Amino acid sequence: MNSQAKDRSQVWVWAEHYQEKLAKVSLGLLGKACELCQQLGGGEVASVLVRSDSQQLVAELIDHGSDKVYLANDTCLSPFDTELCTYLMTELIQSHQPEIVLWGATSMGREIASRVAAKLGTGLTAHCIDLYLDEVSGRRQLVAVVPGWGGNLTLKIICPHRRPQMATVKPGIFPPPQPRKRSGDVIPVEVKDRSSRLDIVEVVEERDETASLEQAEVVVVGGWGLNSLGGFQAVNELAQVLKGSVAGTRPALDAGWIPAERMIGQSGKTVAPRLLVTLGVSGAAQFATAVLSSKLILAVDRNPQAPIFEMADIGIVGDLQDVLPLLIDRLRAINR
Amino acid sequence: MPCDIVVCMKQVPHPDYLGKILLDPARGTITREGVPAVINPGDRNALEEALRIREKFSGRVVVITMGPPQARKALEEALAMDADTAVHLCDQAFAGADTLATAQALACGIRKLGHFDLVLCGDATIDSGTGQVAVQLAEFLDLPCITNVEQLTFENGRSLLAKRIWERGYVRVRIKLPAVIAVTDKINQPRLPTILGIMAVTQKEIKNWNAADISADVSQVGLSGSPTRVFEMSQFHAGRQGEILQGSPEEVVTGAIDRLMKLEML
């Protein structure tokens, strides 16, 4: 009876998981979903979980803010089958009509979200760096903040007439909220459409996601300025001393100093570590938008005019050859 | 068996000049004066892959773009790289399109082309980088789609085995043709246009199609077909100006470490 009105103010999160672990990006989205729900003046946060019978995952989703978990635990449904996931999500959205649906901008999430948006004829805003509700043209709606043109410009995007309002967010933008024990509803969902045009032949895991850049507490990132040192040796040393991960900018990738999965930038990874150290990075906008949410940024560069110093919390102006060996020595001494 | 391929392209600002695109605060528009335009880098990989498939199985490679009159240059370059023909979807009605409206226009254009076996796209553009158009195009063409593909193997001419990348590794997916595939820049090394290729461009056809030509419903394309709206644009500022330390290496390193310790970062 009143379910229609109630459904209207739901904020949904597509919950990704692999081997009994929820993706950090999905948990981060739950935190944001709770904020949006408050701004909506009430309403519910719901997550959609496929192909899992894990009580633990369900509990985790609830403890991170889900009031409801739509659970489609059907063995025919692989989270890698983007077609079946699309059918399921489209149908669920049509019958419950959430106000907002959020997805991680992951390989699979991006694909499913795009297709669902096309099926529903609604808008999807990609790679948001912030989301909030605001009064725009006399109506309360979701404002999605995205970097455009290589991060040089910041665009605010709305979806004024179609619902739901949908957005994807890269891993590393929103930190997972602190979980707390709470209760929620689990709603079993039946999978009706089982015929997919995709045949998932094999799923291969090569990297442990927990060892990935996005999960690192400390990240040391080198840029073109390391050219003066002839490469990345010092970055590796500093990362080792700080027990952090090594990363690089686009020029560092082009120079062959880092593999592609270690590149930070708009076309690469987004990170939000506790401490980010940049070495010889000028701080172009396309880099800046990918590190914005870092807690503390320490930058070393020789050019005092470099834009990196507009985004660093602590900036060191100096030649890397002079500063870096000294910095590494001192930090080693502290560790000892 | 021959394989007819459509390659979707977008003309974008040269990647080295992205930082030069500025906002004109008075008019709220962007200025891209002096910024050269190129084929979106990922779309070159899509074209290269198409050309390699043609070399193996024969067939035709058609490139298609939606864009303003100057986007023709991108098509000419694609023809110089050895594409067979090109289609330019060009109409004021297409302007201001978001990904959904872009996919609608491309779908109408591709339908008008008639027979094809495969649509190839680059994974994401460097200017907006949503990666959504290929998938939404597939939906409007009612075809299956795989993105993030870094290797394509033809199995028997009618089905493909794609190696698609995900966060922890890769997935092998089999898909029947026709299909839409979006490739990454790892899939190949795109060729450069040859002198002969450049000379041959004038002999090749670039079709100019407007909204009426492709029977596009004007309420479904361009700004009017776009569910999303950009309502504000601003120059990006990281804006977390902190403390800048200058002096001897000794001084700056000591200063930085003191501050890191105070903030309990070490």
Question: What structural keywords apply?
Answer:
heterodimer, A: 336 residues, alpha/beta, Rossmann fold, 2 domains, seven-stranded parallel beta sheet, five-stranded parallel beta sheet, 18 strands, 28% helix, B: 266 residues, two-stranded antiparallel sheet, 6 helices, 29% strand
Description:
- The complex is a heterodimer of chains A (336) and B (266).
- By secondary structure, chain A is an alpha/beta fold.
- In chain A, helix 4 packs across helix 5 and helix 6 runs parallel beside helix 9.
- The termini of chain A are far apart.
- Chain A has two domains: 186 residues, HUPs (Rossmann fold, 3-Layer(aba) Sandwich); 127 residues, TPP-binding domain (Rossmann fold).
- Chain A has nine helices and 18 strands.
- The N terminus of chain A is likely disordered.
- Chain B has 266 residues and is of the alpha/beta class.
- Chain B has a single domain, classed as HUPs (Rossmann fold, 3-Layer(aba) Sandwich).
- Chain B is built from six helices and 15 strands.
- In chain B, strands 11-10-9-12-8-1-6-7-13 form a nine-stranded mixed sheet, with helices on both faces. In chain B, strands 2-5 form a two-stranded antiparallel ribbon. A two-stranded antiparallel sheet of chain B has the order 3-4.
- Chain B is globular, with a radius of gyration of 22 Å.
- Strand 18 of chain A pairs parallel with strand 15 of chain B, so a sheet runs across the interface.
In CATH, the architecture of chain B is 3-Layer(aba) Sandwich
Instruction: Give the biggest beta sheet of chain A.
Output: 7 strands, parallel
**How many discrete domains of chain A?**
2
Head-to-tail CA distance between termini of chain A: 67 Å
Q: Shape of chain A, please?
A: globular
Order of helices and strands of chain A: HEEEHEHEHEHEEEEEEEEHEHEHEEH
- Identify the CATH class of chain B: Alpha Beta
What is the share of helical residues of chain A?
25-40%
Question: Biggest protein-protein interface?
Answer: A-B, 91 and 81 residues
Strand order of the largest sheet of chain A: 7-11-6-1-4-5-12
Put simply, the count of helices of chain B is 6
Q: Mind telling me the C-alpha Rg of chain A?
A: 22 Å
- Average pLDDT score of chain B: 93
Q: What does the overall shape of chain B look like? A: globular
Q: Provide a count of the helices of chain A.
A: 9
Distance between the termini of chain B: 64 Å
